[in-house]
Write a structure and sequence with these properties.
The chain is elongated. Helix 2 packs antiparallel against helix 3. With about 120 residues, it is α+β, with helices and mostly antiparallel strands. It has two domains: about 50 residues, N-terminal domain of TfIIb (Single Sheet); about 60 residues. The chain has three helices and five strands, in the order E-E-E-E-E-H-H-H. About 60% of the residues lie in helices and about 10% in strands.
């Protein structure tokens, strides 16, 4: 089945057909709807799918790369959230100070991992 990636979350959007026979896409996760209503757009979409089948392997690799980068960014957000939850309480507790230090190290490692990933894929 023909599909496109959601430009916000990267999930695969399956091509649907309206009652009038026109293609459209919906991301149930983000709520995005994409309608192709004009003849020229529908023709371009068909050419896109023809070319995408020929370039299927690079497209799959791009999607995998996108998801890997999203996972790293999500983990960075999670680490930042944990650090924010601690507030200033780490200043009065050795255990929390060690936890905060570990979180800072993990965050630095994630940023390094993201930079390596970006440089490797260029």
């Amino acid at each position: 089945m023909q599909s496109l990636p959601c430009f916000l979350c990267g999930r695969k959007l399956q091509k649907r057909t309206s009652k009038k026979g026109k293609p459209y896409f919906v991301c149930d996760h983000c709520g995005i709807q994409l309608f192709i209503r004009r003849k020229q757009g529908i023709e371009k979409l068909e050419r896109f799918f023809e070319n995408a089948e020929k370039a299927g392997i690079p497209y799959k690799q791009h999607t995998q790369n996108f998801h890997e980068m999203q996972a790293i960014l999500k983990e960075i957000d999670d680490v930042n959230s944990e650090m924010e939850k601690m507030g200033l309480s780490y200043m009065f507790n050795d255990h929390k100070l060690r936890v905060r230090k570990s979180l800072k190290i993990r965050r630095a490692n994630l940023f390094s991992q993201l930079e390596e990933f970006a440089n490797k894929k260029q």
